[in-house]
Amino acid sequence: MDGLPGLERTFKEEFPKAKIRRCRIHVARNVLAKVPRMLKKLIGDEIRSIFYASSKRKALGFFQKFKR
To answer: I need a labelling partner for 55 at 20 to 30 A (CA). Which of 26, 46, 61, 62 fits?
Structure first.
């Protein structure tokens, strides 16, 4: 829902069982906005490896590596 509270609230009312997630692009932009310029490429590549992993297991592995 990209952080839009009115939209999220309405969506929850209409689709109470649906899961709500943030847009990948907005998540990546929010993270990269807090990263020093010299690390943006490295961090961006790591974020993409998580988002585009071929399985949930691989994505979780990439995420664990990213957290370190």
So the answer is: 26
